[in-house]
Amino acid sequence: MSDTRKSHLDALSISILLACCLFWGFQQVLVKATVTEVAPVFQAFVRFAIASAAVLLWCLWRGVPVSPRHESRAALWGGLLAGALFAGEFACIYIGLQYTQASRLTVFLYCAPFWVALILPRFVAGEGLRGWQWVGLAVAFVGAALALGDGLWHPAVQTQPLAWLGDLLGLAAGLMWALTTVVIRSTPVGRIAPAKQLLYQVGMSTAVLPFLSLALGETWSLQLSGFAWTSLLLQSLVGAFASYLAWMWMLAHYNATKMSSFVFLTPVFALLFGAFWLGETITPGLLAALTLVAVGIIVVNRRPRMAAGA
Question: Do 130 and 76 contact (CB within 8 A), yes or no?
Fold first, then answer.
């Protein structure tokens, strides 16, 4: 089967990516505002359970086969592997947050584009970056790190003796996120419907996260305020359903390495929403970070000059 993915991002893809990153940044603040009422891993479980039902209904409405009998064994195993990695990513995130600061873990998590850029070219031709594109990716990462820098080297970090474990778990989460992308791009599961790919991921998370929540001793309760339910529905239907489905569709049509560079916008958006919602200060460093991220993305997605006579 020929690869019909576009090698460069067009206006449609950039608009979708910006919308996804904008909501993902908002979602981080939303989760933080909700965690005082709903335990974090239980919150993730509820989100993915609702999203699983939404994706299943979408598949039935669109006529997407959901039975494993409709795909090859390789696609089935690829889907299960992608789902396990997706669930593992969130397990690392939530366990890691028990040991290190959220800002530190987030930086390690958003190293995922580096993992994608390093690993994916070994499996899929044409996904590598040229030298100047690596520079752009590095500039974007520096911007995201700068935006989060106020919390990274705070003296309070030294009071957490197991912070290194949380950092490693954050790095592992970013690696699992990248490996999920690699599996989808390099195995037959990448050729099934995006909604079915997403169903593997949210379905596996729905199956795994409750056991993690119980192991952590979290309290389960659905006697929640109107705000908490609104938060959970937004996380489920907009975040885990609509935005992830859009991301899966994008993976099927565009260059995954260049798409991944956009995720650097998510922590920046999170800080912006935190400033406007939680009253956090927007510093000159944050404005500089936004500039670096924008420049990095432009460099990564710059079209190469066509050779004369081409």
Answer: no
- Identify whether 75 is part of a domain: yes
Residue 222 belongs to some domain of the structure: yes
Q: How far is CA 44 from the centre of its chain?
A: 14
Report the Cα–Cα distance between both ends of the chain, in Å, rounded: 26
Q: Are 52 and 203 in contact (CB under 8 A)?
A: yes
- At 89, which amino acid appears? E
Residues 210, 218: Cα–Cα separation, whole Å? 10
State the Cα–Cα distance between residues 310 and 306, nearest whole angstrom: 6
Could you give the number of structural domains in the chain?
A: 1
Whole-angstrom Cα distance, residue 87 to residue 201?
A: 7
HEC string of 157-168?
HHHCCCHHHHHH
CA distance linking residue 208 with residue 90, whole number of Å: 10
Q: Which structural domain range is residue 179 located in?
A: 11-300
pLDDT at 288: 76
User: Does the structure show a pLDDT above 50 at 307?
Assistant: no
Beta-carbon count within 10 A of 165 CB: 15
The whole-angstrom separation of Cα 265 and Cα 140 is 9
Q: Considering the domain boundaries, does residue 307 fall inside one?
A: no
> CA-CA distance, 293 to 266, in Å (whole number)?
10
Q: Please count the helices (runs of H) and the strands (runs of E) in the chain.
A: 13, 0
pTM for the model stands at 0.76
Q: Is residue 212 part of a domain?
A: yes
User: Bigger pLDDT: 285 or 54?
Assistant: 54
Q: What is the DSSP letter of 8?
A: S
